Amino acid sequence: MKEPLNWHRLFGLSWEDFFYGLPVKVEVEKDLSLKQQYLDVVIIRLERDPLTIELPDGFDVLASHNLISFKSFQETLDGWAFSELVGHYVNYRKQVSPNMRDLLPEADFRLFIVCARFPQNLAGQVVMAEVSEGVYDVGHFSGTIRMIVVGQLPCERHNAMLCLFSAKDEQRNYGARIYQPRSPDRTSFLVQLFRGFPKEFFPVPYSMADLVRETRAEVFATASVEERLEGIPVEKRLEGIPAEKRLEGIPVEQRLAGVPPEEYLKTLSPEALQALRQLLADKAPPS
User: Does the predicted TM-score (pTM) go above 0.85?
Assistant: First the structure.
């Protein structure tokens, strides 16, 4: 049976790639307790200078610590998801603060819920203040949770990464065509992500084979010599290389060390063997 795609992990990896090279730390599947309860993503601002990229809609309000819960198109966003995120926030704030009596200020934290489709059932239970297209603020106790509905976001370049997680074909198609990985080692997460897409999400004639081929080429181009050769047996590395080429740069005394004369003679080409015979004949004492 085919293993189900881990949408939450891929969602976290996409944020790692999105912030690649910037003073931002992204923690994926953050373990917040002895009994494992994972928070999907934590985005930590390492510097207060403005970021040099345009953020997706709804994320223009990043604080020092940003906790994100994600619901894929296969899941339902309900009130429990909001309560769970607030619980994660309480736990996380205690962990990153100097001590229990000196908690970091609430202004240092922002809570986000990203969902693939609009939560119709939840809309009648909580007050959702629309901030912009696909972006809402939902009150909780003394604070606010920012909710981003991917399915309602406009298909614009700065939203391309989030569009990959939409429930709508046209948005996924847009994200697959527009989003360009930023980090050299993150193209593999896109391959995994696209495995969950029906074929029709790709613009014809683009296919998974095309994607894999391009990914391999890009990864190979940025890999070191050691990384390229890792896992390849020595005999495979030498396959097709003439013996003369293999011996280039190795001094004669090292080549012959421990090699019986009869074995050495077997390694010579017919021309070299003839030349050796001629040399020996020239040096042989007259009879």
Answer: no
